[in-house]
Amino acid sequence: MMPPGADNTHYLLAGSLFVHERPHLVTTVLGSCVSVCLWDSVLRHGGINHFMLPFWNGEGLASPKYGNIAIAKLIERVLDLGSDHRNLRAKVFGGGIVLNVTNPFMNIGERNIELAMDMLKEERIPVISNDTGGTVGRKLIFNSGDGTVLVKKLTRQIDDIRI
Questions:
Q1: Who's near 140: CB < 8 A, 6+ residues apart?
Q2: What is the DSSP code string of 60-95?
Q3: Which residues lie below 8 Å from residue 45, measured CB to CB, with a gap of 6+?
Q4: Between 3.40.1050.10, 3.30.1330.200, 3.40.50.300, 3.40.190.10, what CATH number should domain 9-153 receive?
Q5: Are 43 and 83 in contact (CB under 8 A)?
Q6: C-alpha 139: how far from chain center
Q7: How would you classify the pairing of strands 149-153 and 138-143?
Q8: What's 158's DSSP letter?
Q9: Who is most buried in 29, 32, 68, 77, counting CB within 10 A?
Q10: Cα(6)–Cα(40) distance, rounded to whole angstroms?
Q11: What is the pLDDT of residues 1-33, one digit of tens each?
């Protein structure tokens, strides 16, 4: 539960992450992007990322807009708050096919989902819930104090983009 009148909300932009020791309601909107919500079930704090592409190719800045960077940084930042790796739980959202593309290689959402699930498995962090794939975007509200996530599916797909 959030304290009345506290400034405990945050809007998470694409390509970023948010971790805090105090409870926050973090909102983000996903299409083909994926968010991993990471929560410590003992210390009752956590964080969330919002990544756009699965892998950083080594050129330019190692930004959290890439899944392999965003997930590693999210885990690192939650552990920096004093969490024990064994107490971490994950929820994964997004990765929808929100553009009508004809080239299967361009299914970035599917590749983002696969990366998230693989990295969390490799880190031995259980994924206790997920809502991924499909053909619509999602609005998320993550409560970092109790680990709950409210998901609202958006109703439109963007049509007629040919690649």
A1: 26, 27, 28, 29, 30, 35, 37, 48, 93, 149, 150, 151
A2: S---TTBHHHHHHHHHHHHHHTT--GGGEEEEEEE-
A3: 19, 20, 21, 22, 23, 39, 78, 81, 83, 144, 145
A4: 3.30.1330.200
A5: yes
A6: 11
A7: antiparallel
A8: B
A9: 32
A10: 22
A11: 554 445 799 999 999 999 999 999 999 999 999
Would you give the DSSP letter of residue 7? -
158 in Cβ contact with 98 (< 8 Å) = yes
- Torsion angle defined by CA atoms of residues 67, 72, 75 and 81, in that order, rounded to the nearest 10 degrees: -120
E strand map for 1-148: 9-11, 16-20, 25-30, 34-40, 45-50, 88-94, 127-132, 138-143
Q: Which pLDDT score is estimated for 160? A: 41
Contact criterion met (CB below 8 Å) for 53 and 131: no
Write the single-letter amino acid at 142: F
pLDDT at 103 over 80: no
pTM comes to 0.88
Q: Which tokens go with 142?
A: 């993550």
Provide the residue ranges of all domains of the chain, joining segments of one domain with +: 9-153
Assigned token pair, 151: 């998901």
Question: Side by side, which strands form the sheet with 16-20?
Answer: 16-20, 45-50, 34-40, 88-94, 127-132
